[in-house]
């Protein structure tokens, strides 16, 4: 049964990007992130209630709270960058860069935490890095034409950097917190950060003009994220992490498939080879 939940996690994670893309065609990405986070927060606390860990919040130490808040801020920055990148660029190009956070996490862990890098992990890093470069077309690096630049690339890169910082902060300071409770607290920080950004940037009035169709997609993307988390932690509870995690990371295949059939974003042969390298590299790193 846990295998079904693992594939369910990958499916919902892959669909999240597509639903978000459909919800930010006209809607500001920061405002969309703020709305979406409300849905995710509700889902995360449902997970806490199901796990029965809500009472543990009183035993969290001050240092742990600090890392929870920092990791929440990093998560919020990653989400804001990610959805801005999705608004400006194609899913097929944004998602691989975001997934490269695996590589950045490994490198930062080696530099900052002194963790060793095995030959297998090194090979995975090389494959993911090469695959990501292949999936970014040369024309994307060209000077902007007709008002279109490569701003999406920098936002996607920022998403990957902050995602890897989230992993490191979690590894350093919140390992003693029950995972569902830690996720719920971090999501609360993300919610505050997202709405603060909406207020600072003066985008509160834009919330009134969000098309109903896009609002529906934004909420669905939040539900998809919550569904992914529920399936992921259920799979981890019943199955081996060494199998569950690689299956979850294959969400990139779901995203690319849906973007092809729904958004008609086609992969060139070069980009398809890059996708294969990214998937292979992910599997190699998680053996």
Share in β-strands: under 5%
Structural class by secondary-structure content: mainly alpha
Tell me the distance between the termini: 21 Å
Helical coverage, percent range: over 70%
Radius of gyration: 18 Å
Number of domains: 1
Query: What overall form do the CA principal axes indicate?
Result: globular
Mean pLDDT: 83
Biggest sheet descriptor: none
Total number of beta strands: 0
Which stretches are low in confidence, meaning pLDDT under 50 for 5 or more residues running? 139-148
Number of H/I helices? 12
Order of helices and strands: HHHHHHHHHHHH
Q: What labels would you give this structure?
A:
single chain; globular; 0% strand; 77% helix; mainly alpha
Explain how this protein is built:
InterPro entries: EamA_dom, EmrE-like. Belongs to the EamA transporter family. The chain is mainly α and 287 residues long. It has one domain. It is built from twelve helices and no strands. Helix 2 crosses helix 3 (62-88). The longest helix has 27 residues, at 62-88.
Blueprint (SSEs and pairs):
Blueprint: H1 2-23, H2 29-51, H3 62-88, H4 91-99, H5 101-112, H6 119-135, H7 151-173, H8 179-200, H9 212-238, H10 241-249, H11 251-262, H12 269-285
Helix pairs in contact: 1-9, 1-10, 1-11, 2-3, 2-8, 2-9, 3-7, 3-8, 4-7, 4-11, 5-7, 6-12
Brief overview, please?
The chain has 287 residues and is mainly α. The protein is built from twelve helices and no strands.
């Amino acid at each position: 049964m846990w295998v079904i939940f693992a594939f369910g996690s990958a499916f919902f994670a892959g669909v999240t990007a597509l639903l978000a893309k459909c919800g930010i065609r006209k809607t500001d990405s920061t405002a969309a992130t703020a709305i979406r986070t409300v849905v995710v927060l509700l889902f995360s606390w449902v997970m806490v209630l199901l796990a029965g860990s809500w009472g543990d919040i009183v035993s969290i130490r001050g240092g742990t709270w600090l890392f929870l808040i920092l990791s929440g801020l990093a998560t919020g920055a990653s989400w804001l960058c990610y959805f801005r990148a999705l608004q400006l660029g194609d899913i097929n190009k944004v998602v691989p860069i975001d997934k490269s956070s695996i590589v950045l996490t490994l490198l930062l862990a080696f530099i900052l935490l002194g963790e060793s890098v095995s030959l297998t992990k090194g090979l995975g890093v090389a494959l993911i890095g090469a695959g990501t470069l292949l999936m970014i077309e040369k024309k994307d690096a060209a000077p902007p034409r007709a008002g279109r630049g490569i701003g999406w690339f920098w936002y996607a890169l920022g998403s990957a950097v902050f995602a890897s910082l989230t992993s490191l902060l979690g590894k350093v300071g919140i390992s003693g917190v029950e995972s569902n409770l830690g996720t719920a607290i971090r999501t609360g920080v993300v919610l505050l950060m997202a709405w603060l950004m909406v207020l600072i940037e003066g985008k509160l009035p834009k919330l009134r003009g969000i098309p109903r169709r896009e609002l529906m997609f934004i909420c669905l993307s939040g539900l998809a994220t919550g569904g992914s988390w529920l399936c992921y932690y259920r799979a981890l509870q019943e199955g081996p992490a060494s199998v569950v995690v690689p299956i979850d990371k294959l969400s990139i295949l779901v995203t690319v498939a849906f973007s092809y059939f729904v958004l008609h974003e086609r992969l060139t042969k070069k980009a398809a080879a890059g996708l294969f390298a990214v998937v292979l590299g992910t599997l190699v790193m998680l053996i």
